[in-house]
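ok here's alpha-L-fucosidase:
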Amino acid sequence: MASNTQQPDLQWFTSARLGMFIHWGLYSLPARHEWVMSKEKIPADEYERYMQYFNPDLYDPVQWAKDAKAAGIKYVVLTTKHHEGFALWDTQVSDYNIINSPFGKDALRMFVDAMRAEGLHVGFYHSLIDWHHPDFTIDGFHPDRDRPDREERNKGRDMAKYREFLHAQVRELLTNYGKIHYLFFDFSYREDWPDKPEKGGKGRDDWASEKLLDMVRTLQPGIVVNDRLDIPGDIVTPEGYQPTKPMERDGREVVWEACQTLNGSWGYDRDNHDYKSVPLLVRMLVDTVSNNGNILLNVGPTARGNFDANASKALSDLADWMSVHSRSIYGCGHSSLTPPKDVRYTQSGKRLFVHVFAWPFEFMHLPGLAGKVAYAQLLHDASEIKIIQLDAEAPVTSIHMRADSKDTLTLKLPIREPGVAVPVIELFLK
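and the structure:
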């Protein structure tokens, strides 16, 4: 049994509901997806050239923090190092870091200071994978996987040395930057997984996961750690899909976080224009909270260090919605009540929030709520919504409707849908 100091502090996490992911590194320069080194099989010595051109002169984490806070985001997670191996901080165990780029400053220190100044919880992403490190063995994801001398080259690589390096970098991150609330490791891929890559997958033994996690909890008591060390973590992190109900493991409900992109790419991808609309992003957020989850919404800054126009607009529009609807998100979760079609419920105590995905004509019928609601209003402007109790046994006529059942509550809605991404009706339960 872990000591109390090693128990994760999940209270802030489950209350926050909305976080921001930021994928930023050398891959922002080619701007062709954060996996460009692997996808295009670029050797490490060739990929290194990007470091000499990495000079994000527009990097302003203070603005990042302000934009995040305005959008209702409560915690921000930055990639300290992605699979490419390039570190955004002044690591002492590798020269492959931002201090040796033209930028020459510790971007991570600037990020942490800026987020804290806005009262945001600080999270670090750290890749377990490192395609640049000379002792990281070539596997099915490695850029050199198809080289004919792959096996011969692997004979000179030592994962034990890589483990020491991995642990040393994590120790730096959790020692030198004050309180860190969340650590997102990425990722394990054992050979016996159903979607295994080519021979050479990696998992808990390669990372010495138990030892690594014990160090993390010792250095940062209360930190929340995800589930990608190939051993159980504090939360479950579905990526790129939306669970349709509260998540469970072995029959027990678990804390979870959906990781989602704006356009299908985590890093800046110049020519990818598959951006989700803001109404869709809001529906995804609501869907997640209605099933007791968080959503970690990703932005990939450009190589100059700013958010591109599409990302900035998405955050601005999200800010507009959250500014008047956030109480249907923060501290809310799944309701035991069953919503009608095209509606999602979130609940906090005696307040039930009705998120309307498709605006109906004049009336909304809510099963199971007859006699249970004291007052109803549109959340964005606190304007009253009339509650109607229809007779379920009345005869059907050409101009009069009746309730579907005795326990159905009916709301009389304005004909015109409110001009917000997703309208919300707030019900005060008796």
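+1. The two ends are 42 Å apart (CA to CA).
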